[in-house]
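hi! just following up on the protien thing from before. the input was this:
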Amino acid sequence: MREVRRRASRGVRAARAGLLTNAALAMVKLITGVVGHSYALVADAVESAADVFSSLVVMGGLRISVREADEQFPFGYGKAEPLSAVVVGLVLVAAAVGIVIAAVREIQVP
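and the predicted 3d structure came back as:
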């Protein structure tokens, strides 16, 4: 169990570093995209913002997954980690769909 907690702790630190990096990237990309009238940069900022949310979900999933088994979950909380991966995947798909919809609208109405 000690090794699992250590790996989860490293994962949380990596997710935190990714969160901070993606938050900075999202702000820079959004400002640059709006000022430069670049739809590609604005779309990339949306993707970086989705990565920020994804990092939060991963951090939460890792923290929950290392909990000890209790009466409510006698086999432990290990399934929280793959569940958080599913949530991250759905967020990225939703961001991609949103970008596609906005791009089609932009093409139709320049």
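Residues 2-35 form the longest helix (34 residues).
The mean pLDDT is 87.
cheers
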